[in-house]
Amino acid sequence: MTTLSHAPASSRPIPNPKKSLITKLNMGTGIVVGVIFCWGTYFAMKAGRDMTDSHNVNKVLLMSMFAWSIGFLIGIGAFIGPFRWLIGKDLTDEEQLYLAVDGQGWKRYFKYCTDHKVVGIQYLVGVMALLGVGGTMAMMIRTNLATPGSHFVTPVVYNSLVGLHGITMIVAMIIVATGPFGNYIMPIMIGAADMAFPRLNALSWWVLFTAVPVLCSAWFLGGIPTGWTAYAPLSDQAGPGMNAFVATIIIFAVSTAVAGMNITTTVVAMRAKGMKWNRVPIFVIGATISVALAIPAFPTFMVAMIQTGLDRTIATGFYDANVGGSGWLYANLFWIMGHPEVYVILIPGVAALMEIAPVFVRKPLFSYNAAIAGFAGIAGLSVLVWAHHMYMAGWMPSLNGPFMVTTEFISVPTGLLFLVLIGTLWRGRPWMKLPMLCVYAFIWNFLIGGITGIYLSDVPADNYLHGSMYVTAHFHYTLMGAALTGAIGGLAYWFPKMTGRMLNERGGYISFWFIQIGFNVLFLGMFIVGAEGQPRRVADYAHLYSHANLISTMGAYSVGIGMIILLWAIVHSWRSGKIAPMNPWGAKTLEWTVPYPVPLVNFDQPPVVTSDPYGYGRSAK
Amino acid sequence: MADHESELLAPTPGARVSTFLKRKDVSQTLLLWVFFTAVFVVLGLWAYPKWMPVVLSKQMQANEDIMIWFTVISAPIAGVVLSIAAKSFLNMHRGDTPPEDGVAIRTNGPVVIVWTATSVLFCIVAIVWGLVALNTESIAAATDAPKSLIVDVTGSQWVWSFYYPQQNIHTHTLNLPVNQPVTFNVMSADVNHSFWPVQLGVKIDANRLVTTVAHADPTATGPLDVKCAELCGLYHAYMETSGAVESPTDFNNWVSSIQATGGVQQ
Q: What does each C-alpha distance from A465 to A389, A462, A567, B258, B266 come to in angstroms?
């Protein structure tokens, strides 16, 4: 059993370092300085350059985008601390407390606030905004595909929708669980007062924030024609909008590196007394493995994009076969990131559901060690499978066999994740609340995603399926059907702790069924057209595929309606939902031992942990 | 003494299994397992052949076999997962307070071992099947090479064009004789494309300044759809053409008709 010595939160005086510049800076000043830097760079670089030369245009745009990001961070005060270090000083205690303290009301969400709970809420709102934008683009894609020969959008707009939907959703899904829950909940779960590096925590969020306007600018610069994979040489050929994609990925990679190091360090170094590794909640294990996997993965995407940027600005020709480069270099770099990234997204969602299942079934997590072996096995193998995305590239046919072997073996640790969940459900009587419903939806969706992944990892079958709608359906079953369902389950579960209110149950249930039924209609239809031979990323298709496409679009609208209802439920509950008790689910992890609002340093007395948090259940008869 | 007595009274493994199977929750789960397994078997045996295009080559047959039999083989495992989940779901507790605690099963060594071993076995079957199919394909490509029809395929934004060097004809449709192996030498004139003659079940990317090779063994006559499976810009969706696998006589007539017009298909 977990024991905790807990006293009421002490009320701290609100620091007011009036003379400090820090009190004057916020998101508004960041935007002003960022815009000045952006336009200043734009006009300064444009002067005297031949802007009919696409290389010059790319140089000016890329530098202006980076200038925006740096300017914003200066304007919000991110560099005041590091600047003080350069002159042998640091922020004063009063300033540091000002950055962290929760005495500033809603304004703290728009400041360079170092409190992990504020950062968690910032991530949550940011994720919801990104999902909203990406989801709207998905609705537009499906509307265009409702009937063959549709002209709802032009092919240019369609291709941009495909690419921007893809990258928006990938970014959103990478942070969907580790952002809100990894920042808000996880430090409390391990009994820490905050993250290991609170200023880096704020930095990771605000760096990510600066990437959003950059990505949005792609629309106004002609869009991107490449999909989110941004394959070369199509990306070399692409217009100015491609610069926005390049800059977004580079900025985002910085954010994930900072966040990944911070979360990993926090879990390794700041666990409560007595919280041995075999007592760490499984969500924490999953989130840590996920970000640890991201730390080596994303820099390769960053390198791939830096080289794309160099090709586009100074014609280096990394990917240009005309001057000795190779598109296969890009493809390798991209997928060395791309496949681990799938598990960076997936693992925290599964781990959240593994945290949820024992609480609602009132049984211990079945085989904690198998869960860890599953996560670790997936993470380890995931860095050895990237070229299964390139079976048909012609790059190295002799490696298709070895990559098929490593890829197929991922089904073994993946199977362990299923075992843990069904083992926990076995002989249980689940308390059917929304978080628990998500466990069942996950099992169904991930099973479909997993089995279809076995076909796709097989080279001969991939001969037929690669590049078809079947692939699109498969990865949506894993990323959306499994990982997003896990994140929604996590939100429903931790909503009381993050907002102090219960999530509206009726809204949650209705949205759940709209989303899950719609999702399966949408993507089962897509499996059919994929098996029939419809390529992915096409703006139009033959009449042969029309019925299944129409069904898919109807499913998509159902998902859209469900998401709107869920958004309403979240907003309504956050504003005026039922006040949540401290531990509404009767869970045993540490976050449920602190009140809402959670005190600044989480625990007045450091907790002492004496067992793992899964001590549910009675002896077997 | 007490230990000795309990040892005598302990049920045999067979009796324990028998007792286990007689439990109501277990028998219900078994029924659900039969149902879900059957669903997946039907999906494999009926749905995939129905969805997938007409088989015109050995490669397409191999693809379809994998889709069918992997689904059938995975059916019992999927059945285990879904039946336990479904049984648990049907046993739900509703209300505002949590149910009583369930049985505290922390782990079960034999179950973990059997589950892992089954996963590994399934995995090995999939790997061996795939490697055998891959190897068969590689050997066929090598041995068939001398008697293969050669087709040079060029992808360019957003058309496919074909050159038959042995016949010296340039075409924009892909016609092939049945029962003669064919080797596609594929290249791009600009960005990446992916050459996909759908009913042949083969696919290979077209890369700029690099030739990639695909091999097919057409075994039946019928119409052929050629598509691009790699996003290649504005009109990617429309980068497709048609063709046919036809009898040698029809193919020769088709070749002759093009040669009669200067070797370029009108």
A: 11, 5, 35, 33, 32
In a domain, B58, yes or no: yes
Hey, where are the domains in chain A?
A: 17-113, 114-593
* A582 token code pair: 């401290």
Cβ distance A368 to A612 under 8 Å? yes
pTM: 0.94
**Do residues B24 and B121 share a domain?**
yes
Testing the interface with A: which of B231, B238, B241 to mutate, by most A Cβ within 10 A? B231
The C-alpha atoms of residue A291 and residue A257 are separated, in whole angstroms, by 9
B37 and B77 assigned to the same domain: yes
Q: Domain of B230: which CATH number?
A: 2.60.40.420
- Residue whose entry in the numeric block shows the structure tokens 């060594």: B109
Specify the 3-state DSSP secondary structure of B214.
Answer: strand
How many beta-carbon pairs below 8 A join chains A and B? 281
pLDDT digits (tens, 9 = 90+) for B228-242: 999 999 999 999 999
Could you tell me how many residues make up chain B? 266
| B positions 87-146 inside 8 Å of A (CB) | 88-89, 91-95, 98-108, 111-112, 115-116, 118-120, 122-123, 126-127, 129-131, 133-134, 137
Distance CA B176, CA A465 (A): 22
Q: Are residues B137 and B163 in the same domain?
A: no
Query: Which residues, other chains included, contact A247 with Cβ-Cβ below 8 Å and sequence gap of 6+?
Result: A62, A65, A66, A69, A211, A214, A309
* CB of A404 closer than 8 Å to CB of A458: yes
Kindly report the nearest CA distance between residue A414 and chain B, in angstroms. 9
Domain that holds residue B220: 148-259
Q: Which residue type is seen at A594? A: V
Closest residue of A to B62, CA-based? A460
* Measured distance CA(B229)–CA(B242) in Å, rounded: 15
Is B108 in Cβ contact with A429 (below 8 Å)?
Answer: no
C-alpha span between A118 and B215 (Å, rounded): 58
Q: Which residues pair with residue B171 across a beta bridge?
A: B162
- Are B153 and B136 in the same domain? no
Question: Based on the number of CB atoms within 10 Å of its own CB, is B173 exposed (0-12), middle (13-18) or buried (19 or more)?
Answer: middle
C-alpha to C-alpha distance for A148 and A542, rounded to whole angstroms? 6
Domain A114-593: give its CATH code.
1.20.210.10
pLDDT in tens, A290-310: 999 999 999 999 999 999 999
Sign of the Cα torsion A511, A512, A513, A518 reads: positive
Residues of chain A with pLDDT under 50: 1-10
The tally of domains found in chain B comes to: 2
Q: Does residue B208 share a domain with residue B135?
A: no
Tell me, yes or no, whether B192 and B208 share the same domain.
yes
Q: Does the beta-carbon distance from B123 to A412 stay under 8 Å?
A: yes
Neighbours of A476 (CB within 10 A): 20
